[in-house]
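STRUCTURE:
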């Protein structure tokens, strides 16, 4: 299995938006022609709205989800099935099983590491979160991945603090939706983010982030919400990653979701397996 395919599989089993604001990209050092985000305060209307948004999140300590996903990139069309288990703010454990209970790969994310076993080739790697930057030119950390998986709000690109990240966001309304949006002009490029939220139940419907310098766009859509405990949770997540001539789509479906079934992450690496270096 090629490294690029492995990378997309990892993205596939992770994607899908436990804190409210977490890092996705480093703070850019370019000149901001808009508000001074390090010294200004956000609009209190935005602060109040995001607090209400957080109240609609799924409350859990452990989360288990069976999933089916399909990755498409040019001529490639790859189905992926498996199980995701999350221990909140601690680890994300993934087993990729296309059928008959046979595990092809296993993934373990902690706050500071990515561990991946490829059973088809008897290989494994252990990396930090620079892995995503090197392979897909996007910086992700544990908290952001957890937020995406569980339908929570995140800022792209991230800021050093929660309040500074909210500076510049505007709140508007269209039929049935509240829209949180932000646009910044930095030197000769623009950063944009738009979050669409249901005005009925405060659930995130979509997150669109765009950076014109890299010609990069990340578009996440949530659908098929159903009642889970005391909130609504999406069964379907559609992800589109566009960068220059690359166009990757991931259709992601949760088939079964179990809340607060405790687990201990198992990640034993056979001494017969070969450790590989990604970068």
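SEQUENCE:
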């Amino acid at each position: 299995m090629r490294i690029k395919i492995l990378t997309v599989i990892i993205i596939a089993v992770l994607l899908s938006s436990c804190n409210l604001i977490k890092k996705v990209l480093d703070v850019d050092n370019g000149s901001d022609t808009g508000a001074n985000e390090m010294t200004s305060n956000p609009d209190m209307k935005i602060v109040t709205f995001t607090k209400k948004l957080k109240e609609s999140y799924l409350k859990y300590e452990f989360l288990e989800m069976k999933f089916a996903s399909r990755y498409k990139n040019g001529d490639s069309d790859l189905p992926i099935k498996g199980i995701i288990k999350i221990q909140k703010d601690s680890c994300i454990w993934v087993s990729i099983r296309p059928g008959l209970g046979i595990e092809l790969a296993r993934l373990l994310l902690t706050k500071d590491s990515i561990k991946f076993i490829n059973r088809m080739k008897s290989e494994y790697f252990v990396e930090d979160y620079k892995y995503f930057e090197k392979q897909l030119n996007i910086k992700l950390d544990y908290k952001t991945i957890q937020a995406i998986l569980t339908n929570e709000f995140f800022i792209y690109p991230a800021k050093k603090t929660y309040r500074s990240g909210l500076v510049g966001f505007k709140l508007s309304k269209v039929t049935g939706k509240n829209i949180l949006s932000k646009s910044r002009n930095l030197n000769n490029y623009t950063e944009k983010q738009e979050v669409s939220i249901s005005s009925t139940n405060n659930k995130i419907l979509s997150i669109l982030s765009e950076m014109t310098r890299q010609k990069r766009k990340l578009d996440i859509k949530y659908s098929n919400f159903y009642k889970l405990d005391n909130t609504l949770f999406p069964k379907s997540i559609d992800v589109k990653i566009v960068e220059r001539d690359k166009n990757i789509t991931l259709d992601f479906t949760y088939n079964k979701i179990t809340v607060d079934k405790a687990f201990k992450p198992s990640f034993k690496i056979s001494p017969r397996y070969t450790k590989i270096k990604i970068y």
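REMARK: The chain has one domain: 3-268.
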